[in-house]
Every structure is written in C-alpha cells, then in structure tokens.
Design brief:
Number of helices of chain A: 11
Oligomer: heterodimer
Structural class of chain A: alpha+beta
Strand content of chain B: 15-25%
Number of domains of chain A: 2
Order of helices and strands of chain B: EEHEEEHHHH
Radius of gyration of chain B: 16 Å
Strand content of chain A: 15-25%
CATH architecture of the largest domain in chain B: Roll
Number of strands of chain A: 14
Helix content of chain B: 25-40%
Distance between the termini of chain A: 52 Å
CATH architecture of the largest domain in chain A: 2-Layer Sandwich
Bound molecules: flavin-adenine dinucleotide, FE2/S2 (inorganic) cluster
Number of helices of chain B: 5
Largest interface: A-B, 23 and 24 residues
Shape of chain A: globular
CATH class of the largest domain in chain B: Alpha Beta
Structural class of chain B: alpha+beta
Shape of chain B: globular
Chain lengths: 269, 157
C-alpha cells in the first residue's frame, strides 16, 4: 500500500484510478487500512479549498473536507447543526467529513440524507460545474467505489427554516447508528407545499428520495389526511438491507410511523 | 515500505520518530514513541480507548495516520499527571470510575476536553461528551459522577 499526498485537489484528481481511494477524515478508509484491506494507493490532499465554508448567492458552498464538528459550530448553518450532531460521537465528529459522508456505506450517510433533501449539488475536483447530489448517489449505488473526488457541496439555504426537518432513528442513545434517517424539505407557497423533497437513509444501497411520498405532499398543506397518506407510502418500493440493527421487513414496517411523527412535529412547529 | 519521519509535540515535549507508511497514530505512539497510555480496543473507531487530543480536539488515534500529527500538539493520558495526579484522575479513583481500567485513558481525554471548554457541564453534557467511549465494566454512572465531581471541586477551588 502507498500513501500519496498532493498539494492541490486538481493533482489529486489526476492521480485517482481504479486502484486508488481518496482519504478525507479517514474514519472509514482507516478501518480498511488497519484490517489490511484497503486499496493499494491512498490519495490525500491538503488543499485549503477542501476545508472552506463560503456563503453564496442562495446558500453555502461547503468544502468536502469540512468536519461535522465544524458544521455544528458554524453560526450560519443552524439548520444543518442537528444533522451533524447526529453523526457518531465527539471524536468521530472531529474527524468525519461532509464529503466522506456522501460515500459512506450502509447504515452510514446521515448527513448525505439531509443534503439530498435540501437539493444540494456537488462540484467535482478538476471539472467545471455542479451536478445534483441525486446523480452522484444513484451512480454510487450502482457502481460501488468512485474514482472521482468531490471538491465541495453547494447547499441552498432553506427559504423558511421550518420547511426543513430531519430525524435519525437509532436504538442507542445518545449515540447509535441508523435504523434509518429521514430528511424532508417542504417549501410552501401560500400555504401549499411546492417542490417537496423527501429522503431516506439506510433504506437502500445509498440515501434515496421517495417520489411516491413527494407526489402525495405536493400542492397540499400538512393536514392529518395528507400526513397519513404520506406515511402509508413511506416504505413503498424500497428494498432496505437487513443488518444487525434491523431487518428489511422492520425498516419498511416502521418507516411510515417515523415519517408521520416527523411531519407532525414539523407541522406543530 | 518507506519510513516517514514525524516530528510533533507530545504532552509538551518535542518528539520525533519514524512511521511506516499507512501506520496509524495509535500503533505509532505505542510502538515507535513508547507512550502506552492510548489503548487498542477495536481499531475501527467504535470503542474510544485510543482517544488522544490533537490541537485541543479529541481524535481516534486508531483511525488517524501517524504522519497527520506532523508539527501538531498531541496530548495523551500519560501527560495528565504533573508531579501529582490530575484532578480528573483523583476523582476517577474516588468514585471507582475505573474497574479493569482499559477505557480509562480514553475517558480521561474526552473528559479533559469537555472540562477545558465547559467548566460547568450538566449531566447530559457529560453523557454526550463520553458517548464515543465504551466502558464494559462500570455502567458509566461512576465515570459521569467523577467528571461532575471534578467540575464541582474546580468551581469551589
Ligand atoms: C464509530 C463510528 C461511528 C460512526 N457513526 C456514523 C453515524 O452515526 N452516521 C454517519 O453518517 N456516519 C457514521 N460513521 C461513518 C463515517 O464516520 C462518516 O460517514 C463520515 O462522514 C465519513 O467521512 P470521512 O471523512 O471520515 O471519510 P473517509 O473514511 O475519509 O472516506 C470514506 C469514503 O468516502 C470517500 N471520500 C471521502 N471524501 C471524498 C471526496 N471528497 N471525494 C470523493 N470521495 C470521497 C472515500 O474514498 C471513502 O470511500 C461512523 C464511523 C465510525 C468509525
Ligand atoms: S481502538 Fe480506536 S476506537 Fe477502538
Ligand atoms: S473500566 Fe473496564 S472498560 Fe471501563
């Protein structure tokens, strides 16, 4: 195994390949290194762009190397702080990065679930433009390991902070991995939901949106009947993994209940 | 494998040692530097026995590459006692917060950072602060009591 360090992200991106893995906080990559199971080349970069948080026109650009602890501490990101706080324990949050969370395997990736619901876009190192996180996660689900590097994530600011809700369901308090996590973004236009985004984590190979639920919410207000219809469709068509925490059947069975509770809590404000 | 020279500050003293490529900080501290206070429990980030402080923040040394501490300040439990045992160590003894003691060095590191930042934590804040450290012996209550007692004694002093 070789460890290669590059000054800039562009150089690091050029060094990537099928035999290489990018290492950020290392909370997952180092497990493989310790077990002697890592890729044969490990790519790192100390590019300062990786750890930048910048306000943009309609939101924020968050460097892929920003840690969960920094998100929690950042005064302009109160809507993301509870999500970052739900990742691991204090030591993990000091190390775990936003970029690494986009590639974390089941049952991890709680932060990515929130970013997906918020409509985040990812900027790839050495490539211009941003693409929807939806695409990155879908491609990841299909192909396994990526040989690309995410430079930053563009997160639109929710117009109304109350439109965004997140819950992580776990069995151990205060710290435990996800049975599932749910993030919803329900912007309203004269009381009606417009552009609903509902994302689940630990309910498939990667964080995913549930379009059946989004369709039921679209154009409605969050009344009891709408919430009930959304809850009923929550597990629809999902194929969650069975693991030591929960079976696929259990995850599908309780998805609606947790979605309903989250929506009710958001409606109460 | 290439050997990488790593120079850093350990508990206030300059140290230098060689790390093999890909070696984690825990093994580096224990084998190359000779500080046996951080413990190996899992090598996967789950137990927290290997917790050290890097530039004022707790990190899992088993998931950190050794050369990542180049030029940085590392604190471990072996640096706590300074002539006499640290107040946290004193409180851990008084409250029977160590049974087998394997989790203790990591617990002490998490507790130290908590009290450095927040001299009067609530019980809930203490629980949150040690939530990344597993203890299979004490049931946590004596550890939480010891940390709260340290905060109280400091406030009175
Ligand atoms: C004890 C423990 C508890 C945890 N609890 C949680 C939890 O509650 N919730 C949760 O979501 N996760 C959890 N995790 C998993 C992990 O810590 C997080 O998902 C974290 O955000 C991963 O980030 P990292 O920087 O450490 O990733 P790394 O280990 O550095 O990388 C992880 C993966 O992402 C890829 N990658 C990293 N950065 C980039 C980039 N910029 N571009 C392209 N690919 C990249 C790597 O190649 C690798 O495949 C836990 C881990 C541990 C050890
Ligand atoms: S040995 Fe590092 S967390 Fe267990
Ligand atoms: S005292 Fe034995 S693990 Fe904590």
């Amino acid at each position: 195994m070789r460890v290669e360090s590059y000054k800039t992200l562009a150089e690091a991106a050029r060094a990537m390949g099928p035999d290489a893995v990018f290492m950020a906080g290392g909370t997952l990559v180092m497990r493989d290194v310790n077990a002697g199971e890592s890729a044969s080349r490990i790519i790192r970069s100390a590019d300062p762009a990786l750890t930048e948080i910048r306000a943009t026109g309609d939101g924020f650009s968050i460097g892929a190397g920003v840690t969960m602890a920094r998100i929690v501490a950042h005064r302009d990101l109160p809507f993301l702080a509870p999500v970052a706080r739900a990742v691991g324990g204090p030591q993990v949050r000091n190390m775990a990065t936003v970029g690494g969370n986009l590639f974390a395997h089941h049952p991890y990736g709680d932060f990515a679930v929130a970013l997906l619901a918020l409509g985040a876009r990812v900027v790839l190192a050495g490539q211009g433009g941003a693409k929807p996180l939806d695409d990155l996660l879908r491609e990841r689900g299909r192909s396994g390991g990526p040989s690309l590097i995410v430079a930053s994530i563009e997160v639109p600011r929710p117009r109304d902070p109350r439109a965004f809700g997140f819950v992580k369901v776990s069995r151990i308090k205060p710290k435990g991995v996800s049975v599932m996590s749910i993030a919803v973004n329900l912007p309203r236009d004269s009381g009606r939901i417009r552009g609903a985004r509902v994302a689940f984590g630990a309910m498939g190979p990667a964080p995913l949106r549930v379009s059946a639920v989004e369709r039921v919410l679209e154009g409605q207000s969050l009344d009891a009947a709408t919430i009930a219809r959304a809850a009923q469709l929550a597990g629809d068509g999902l194929d969650p993994p069975t693991d030591a925490l929960a079976s696929a059947w259990y995850r599908r069975e309780v998805a609606g209940t947790h979605l309903r509770r989250l929506l009710e809590k958001m409606e109460r404000g | 494998m290439a050997k990488i020279p790593v120079t850093f500050t350990l508990n206030g003293s300059e140290r230098a040692a060689f790390a093999e490529e890909g070696l984690n900080l825990l093994e580096f501290l224990r084998r190359a530097v000779g500080d046996l206070s951080p413990k190996y429990g899992c090598g996967q980030g789950t137990c927290g026995a290997c917790t050290v402080i890097i530039d004022g923040e707790t990190h899992l040394s088993c998931l950190t590459m050794a050369d990542a501490v180049q030029g940085r300040k590392v604190e471990t439990a072996s640096g706590l006692a300074n002539g006499k045992v640290h107040p946290l160590q004193e409180a851990f003894m008084e409250h029977f917060a160590a049974q087998c003691g394997y989790c203790t060095p990591g617990m002490l590191m998490s507790a130290k950072v908590l009290l450095d930042r927040n001299p009067s934590p609530t019980r809930a804040e203490v629980i949150e602060a040690i939530s990344g450290n597993l203890c299979r012996c004490t049931g946590y209550a004596p550890i939480i009591d010891a940390i709260l007692a340290t905060a109280n004694t400091r406030r009175l002093a």
